[in-house]
Amino acid sequence: MRVADSIGKLRSWRAQINPKWKVGLVPTMGALHAGHVSLVEAARKECDCVVTSIFVNPKQFGPHEDFHKYPRTLSADVELLGNKVDLVFAPEVSDMYPNEPMVTALVNGMEKTSEGASRPGHFSGVATVVAKLLNIVQPHTAFFGQKDAHQCIVIRNLIRDMNFPVQLEIVPTMREADGLAMSSRNRYLSPEQRKLAPILYQALLTAKNLVEKEQVYSRGPLVDSALRVLEQPGVTVDYISLASLEDGREIDLITNKHPLLLSGAIKIGTTRLIDNLIAQPL
C-alpha cells in the first residue's frame, strides 16, 4: 500500500495502473472506524484496485461547525487500512484548493430542507469535492455509506447530471450493538452521552415500524412518533425528515410503494449526530 499526498503523485500512480483493471474509490475524511472498513471491503470484493481518499474538506463545513476540531488521525488510519487498499490519497487543502474556486457545484432543492437547511452550503461543498475526486482518481466505481443518505442522494444525482462514467455503490450503515450508527464524531461523546446516543436510531425505528407494520402514511404522525421518543433531557432535536430516496424532497403523504428515507439529526451536548432508515410502504 502506498500513500500519495498530492494530486501529482496520485496521477503518476494512476497512469501506471493496468487499463483493464477496475478501480474503486472510497472517499473519507479520515478518523476511520469499522464503518469505513466495510466500504473498503465492499470495494475490494468488486475491484482490482482500491483507492481510499482521506481529506477533511473545508468546503462542506459551515463557519460555526467543527472543521478545526474534526479528528485528523492519518497515521492510525493508514495503519488500520494496512493491505486492504492499494493507495491512500491524502492531499493537503492547498493542493485541492490552491485558490478560492471560481466554479463550484450547485445543488438544487436539497439545500432548503432537513440536512441542507441545517447546514447551508454543505451539499455544494460535498458535490464539489466529490467531483474533484472523481476527476482526479478516475475510478470505475465509488463507494459511499448509507449513513450519509442525503450525501448519497446528492452524489447519485451529481454522477447522473454531470455524466461521470462512474458507478455508485451504497453500502449499508454499520451499527454498534445498541443500534448507534458508527461515526467519527462518536468519539466526542462522554460515557454518559454515549449511553443516550442510540435514541435517534430508536426514534427513526419507531417511525419506520409505523409505516411498515401499521400503514401510517402521513408525515405528521410519523414525525410526531419520532419526536416523542426524543423527548429526553440532554437531547436537542435538529430535524426529523420523511423524504424521497430519489431526490431528497420532503413528503407530506405517502402515495406509492416506493422506498422512503426517514432521517434525523440531534445534538447531545455539542455533538451532532445523524442517522437514517429506509422505510418500505406496504
From TrEMBL:
<dbReference type="InterPro" id="IPR003721">
    <property type="entry name" value="Pantoate_ligase"/>
</dbReference>
<dbReference type="InterPro" id="IPR042176">
    <property type="entry name" value="Pantoate_ligase_C"/>
</dbReference>
<comment type="similarity">
    <text>Belongs to the pantothenate synthetase family.</text>
</comment>
<comment type="pathway">
    <text>Cofactor biosynthesis; (R)-pantothenate biosynthesis; (R)-pantothenate from (R)-pantoate and beta-alanine: step 1/1.</text>
</comment>
<dbReference type="GO" id="GO:0005524">
    <property type="term" value="F:ATP binding"/>
</dbReference>
<keyword id="KW-0436">Ligase</keyword>
<dbReference type="GO" id="GO:0015940">
    <property type="term" value="P:pantothenate biosynthetic process"/>
</dbReference>
<dbReference type="Pfam" id="PF02569">
    <property type="entry name" value="Pantoate_ligase"/>
</dbReference>
<dbReference type="InterPro" id="IPR014729">
    <property type="entry name" value="Rossmann-like_a/b/a_fold"/>
</dbReference>
<keyword id="KW-0566">Pantothenate biosynthesis</keyword>
<protein>
    <recommendedName>
        <fullName>Pantoate--beta-alanine ligase</fullName>
        <ecNumber>6.3.2.1</ecNumber>
    </recommendedName>
</protein>
<keyword id="KW-0547">Nucleotide-binding</keyword>
<keyword id="KW-0067">ATP-binding</keyword>
<dbReference type="GO" id="GO:0004592">
    <property type="term" value="F:pantoate-beta-alanine ligase activity"/>
</dbReference>
